[in-house]
Write a structure and sequence with these properties.
single chain; 500 residues; alpha/beta; Rossmann fold; Helicase, Ruva Protein, domain 3; 3 domains; five-stranded parallel β-sheet; three-stranded antiparallel β-sheet; 16 strands
């Protein structure tokens, strides 16, 4: 930019400043080139796409292409679109009062042309911030051509005393009003086919027909579309000519590792600072939260076509902390560490974010969620402790013998969700061999994490069917597996419960 541009208020002053406008795609391309040359990442908030999606986006921008982002829900498609504003100039000049963000050097609207014809260099100029140059529309079945392109406005005609043959009676829709900016349509396949057809000429021929008006509209817009690949390829919901007019198709994906997934969750979680002061979350539990999503994406109970959004882990992490915070408040304690049993609190975060296949519907969303949590525990357990599966590791009997021997004598352990930290410690340390096992296998942890890993051992052994884990009122009961099998009646909490 040249000088203090905000002080420029007329077309004449703008000309004297030496300012020369460029198209929005050229503008984004120019700013991306500068960003790459200066090692600035405009998509810094997008994690896990450095070697896949981001290079494709760079290529499309450098080619000045319109883009369609294809991916399952929760793959940051909309976030990518919104971050495109980082590549716009901070301010651009428009003819003051123009509905179409008219370029003062080449206005589109009749209003802009007539104003320049009348005032010349005295035409008033205003400055448009880059945040105001982003428009987003969710495609729904009720979207009309009038919403996107425009329609005749009888109230406008009456108030201005204009005949319907006058172009000024047109009320332009979202797309023309996004001139010189970014326009995003989310979930494009949900847009009715006849509405998609209306986009053809806007994208390619740069004209529009509104109620008999054939208007030449060489709009300067960077179009971004998002879609679910299942809809895009199989249902055929995007009409073929429209697909042909979208220059670059970019595929998104879910995080490929727990490490990347954790970074996304920690960046997007919205817990308050006071919650982090009250509740400490160990690395183990952070990994378990992410592993639940990985298990869901490969589960036979979950519909893979719908995907498992990254919002699942974000909401689960938030609920984990809040569930532990509730315990702190109820027990009048100052702080705590999140426990394995606190994963009960993430169930509401999972049930609403997974689409179940027929078999999953038969099981029920809560039971499927508990299965996913159990599988996550089982998957990560062998990263910390010997595999309890005796068929794979003969020494496992000796490793866990002190623990299993205690339970085999008829002892049981009840862990309640709201027990105090002292009660939690007392119950876990009552199991012989549990603390010694953790101290042997896990190094460099403090007392609170030591207790967490002791609890983790009990949950892990239950997932490997070494111990029995039964739900009780507001908690979990651990007991010997053999006694449970010999006394199945004890597996019922009441006459309405199912056999665990």
């Amino acid at each position: 930019m040249i000088g203090n541009i905000e002080n420029i208020t007329t077309l004449g002053e703008l000309k004297k400043s030496g300012y020369r406008p460029i198209g929005v795609k050229e503008e984004i391309r120019k700013n991306l080139i500068l960003a790459l040359q200066n090692n600035y990442n405009p998509f810094e908030q997008i994690i896990g796409y450095d070697d896949t999606v981001i290079p494709d986006i760079h290529t499309a921008i450098l080619s000045r292409h319109n883009i369609v982002l294809l991916g399952l829900r929760g793959q940051a498609k909309t976030k990518i679109a919104r971050l495109m504003t980082n590549l716009l100039d901070q301010l651009i000049p428009i003819i003051k009062g123009s509905d179409l963000n008219d370029n003062p050097f080449s206005p589109l609207s009749k209003y802009g042309k007539e104003l320049i014809s009348e005032l010349g260099n005295d035409t008033p100029i205003s400055w448009l911030n880059r945040e105001e140059r982003y428009t987003e529309k969710l495609a729904t079945p009720d979207v009309t051509v009038a919403d996107l392109i425009g329609d005749i406005d009888p109230i406008k005609a009456a108030s201005l005393k204009l005949p319907y043959s006058d172009e000024r009676v047109i009320h332009f829709g979202l797309i023309p009003r996004s001139n010189r900016g970014i326009f995003v349509i989310n979930e494009l396949p949900d847009l009715q086919a006849r509405i998609q057809v209306a986009l053809f000429n806007i994208l390619q021929e740069k004209d529009a027909q509104i109620r008999g008006f054939k208007i030449r509209l060489p709009l300067d817009i960077f179009f971004i579309f998002t879609a679910n690949p299942e809809d895009y390829t199989n249902r055929g919901s995007i009409v073929t000519p429209l697909k042909d007019r979208i220059d670059s198709q970019i595929l998104t994906h879910y995080p490929k590792s727990i490490t990347i997934s954790r970074r996304i969750t920690e960046q997007e979680a919205r817990n308050l600072p006071e919650q982090y002061e009250k509740v400490r979350v160990s690395e183990l539990l952070k990994d378990l939260i992410e592993q639940i999503a990985f298990e869901a994406r490969s589960s036979d109970f979950v519909d893979p076509k719908s995907g498992v959004s990254a919002r699942l882990t974000i909401s689960s992490y938030e609920n984990l902390i809040s569930f532990a915070e509730r315990r702190v408040l109820l027990n009048h304690e100052s702080s705590t560490i999140a426990r394995i049993s606190d994963l009960t609190g993430v169930i509401p975060s999972v049930t609403g974010k997974i689409e179940l296949v027929y078999e999953g519907e038969q099981e029920g969303s809560i039971k499927v969620t508990n299965i996913l949590i159990g599988k996550a525990i089982k998957s990560l357990f062998i990263n910390y402790f010997p595999n309890p599966d005796t068929r794979k590791l003969k020494t496992s009997n000796q490793t866990y013998f002190p623990i299993t021997a205690w339970f085999s004598k008829g002892n049981k352990l009840d862990l309640f969700n709201t027990c105090t930290d002292k009660e939690y410690e007392s119950k876990l340390t009552s199991v012989p061999g549990l603390k010694d096992l953790v101290r042997t296998q896990i190094k460099n942890i403090d007392k609170k994490e030591e207790l967490l890993f002791m609890e983790f051992v009990l949950f892990g052994l239950s997932e490997f069917s070494i111990l029995s884990k039964l739900p009780i009122s507001s908690g979990t009961e651990f007991k010997d597996m053999m006694s449970t099998m010999l006394n199945p009646i004890g597996n019922f909490q009441n006459e309405d419960d199912e056999l665990v």
